[in-house]
Design a protein that fits this description.
- There is one protein chain.
- The protein is mainly alpha-helical and 218 residues long.
- It folds into two domains: 54 residues, no CATH class; 145 residues, no CATH class.
- The protein contains eight helices and no strands.
- Helix 1 packs across helix 8 and helix 5 runs antiparallel to helix 6.
Length: 218
Amino acid sequence: MFDRSTRVADIVLMNAATASVFDRRYIDYCCRGTRELERACAEHEVDVELILDELHVAAAASPQDVDLRTASTSALIHRVIAHQHRDLRATLSLLTYEAANLAQRQPSPRIVRHVRILLDELSERIITHLDGEESDLFPALLKTPVSNQARVKLGLMFDDHRELTGLLRGLRAATGTYTPPDLVDPELRQFFAGLRELDALITRHHHVENHVLLPRFR
């Protein structure tokens, strides 16, 4: 199905379950998805054969049910809004609520206060991004013919993805890739696990738009 020369973005397109393998190691398969697997593994200093084994296991365990590349643009956009946008909004709402509660503790871990600031910035940017897609970009892409202005907006969407990925990198760095400061505290563990889930949701959202939606209008 795929090998060391396959682009990482294409691997996830072939089978969405493989995304979890990349998510665990924070291998970017969206904004840097054009890299071949071997190069991506080398940059992350992981064994490409080990990753290939894990990818094939993940793909075999969860056969691809829907190939988004063959969906109509209308169906694709509907799926993005109904699933990815919904999940992102719900996860952000829960995490900002948890961050506020944790920050009010006495004493509150310093890292939690710092993460809350980063999360608030990321949340505001993502919600603005999602709102813009739903109210402006997506309706423009569903018109026939697609205007040059809509294509410009699509390019701006890609730029947004790059900036949001940069904010994610900052969040990863600040949390030691989502390692809670107190491994015993269940609420802290839940919060940091939620941050890790948010990271994966954002990456998968960007992947679909960068590598399925965007190429249709180039």
